[in-house]
Amino acid sequence: MDSLDMPQIADDTTCEALPAPRPVMIAVxxxxxxxxxxxxxxxxxxxxxxxxxxxxxxxxxxxxxxxxTILSLExxxxxxxxxxQAMLTLDTSSLxxxxxxxxxxxxxxxxxxxxxxxxxxxxxSWRLKEIDGDIHSNKLKSADLLKEKYLADFSNVxxxxxxxxxxxxxxxxxxxxxxxxxxFDVPNEVRIQAMLQQEAAHNASEVYSAQVELLEQRLAELKxxxxxxSDQIRNAHGIPLLKHRxxxxxAEADRLQERREQSEILSPAYGTVGLFRSQVGQTVTAGQPxxxxxxxxQQYVTISVRSRDLPLFEMDQEVAVRFxxxxxxxxxxxxxxxxxxEIRDDGESFSELRITPTDKSWPPLPFGSxxxxxxxx
Length: 377
Description:
Blueprint: H1 2-15, H2 22-48, E1 50-63, E2 68-73, E3 80-81, E4 86-90, H3 93-164, E5 170-173, E6 176-179, H4 188-236, H5 239-261, E7 264-266, E8 271-273, E9 283-284, E10 289-306, E11 318-323, E12 327-335, E13 342-343, E14 349-357, E15 370-375
Antiparallel strand pairs: 1-10, 1-15, 2-4, 2-9, 3-8, 4-7, 5-6, 8-10, 10-14, 11-12, 11-15, 12-14, 13-14
């Protein structure tokens, strides 16, 4: 009976599996989780290694210098252009009319000025002649008054001597002054008469002095009037105002002429002509952009990078650049902005990096073409 029970025990042992230890199961689960996270991060990192950007270049914008209409285009988009080479021409018919009208206005004003100046010169000559006559007449009067004043002063001195000295009147002789009457007594009536004559001579001298002073003042006034006469007459006829109007009209004509010379738009730089934003016959306003000059020697690529990926880049770092057509070239990180350039709806922030060529091997693709940038391993 014991032998029959033994096989039954053996069969039960082979049919039931022993349970795995709990620590082993936990380790297997952790390994699987770590492997999954690692694969996910590796796939994400692999996907983040490529950034899409666009090919750009330094540009020089050419704007319309005045309100006008495009008359002709001298170049087409894609043409190479030199500095100061003609690019397009603006219609200046309206400016030509304004310039002609302004020149006619200047001519009329100049003729009017000539006529007024001729009248002024005649009046100035006539008035100067009158003033010169008055000056000459007053000088003669002043001379006569000075002569009378001298005689009055002489008479005053003579009568004063008569009253002061009894030796009295003297006359000139070959041997000098000799007394005509050596000694005599002057009667009272003579002395009174001498005093009256002396007083009259003194008064006459003062009157002549006052008259001479008045004449001198009049002469000074006449000379002042004479010096200012030309300017006063010219001002009265409006000559300075007319000259100012001519200067203003000439300045306006010069300004219009300068604008007319700007009708031929010249290239400000060397490069490639971009797309014209206006065509022949279209009206443009002053300051409106007309075309861009693309400088292919300063082309670059801009890429938008998430802020959390910025640590992958540094200045002067070399990166791989793939152009359309599977053309692979190299570039250098030349600009990393100090702040973000975009914050999207999901809250992710981005910055635009600039990649410049390492050499001149970049293909001549149209600007704006899509480009891929990746890190070098």
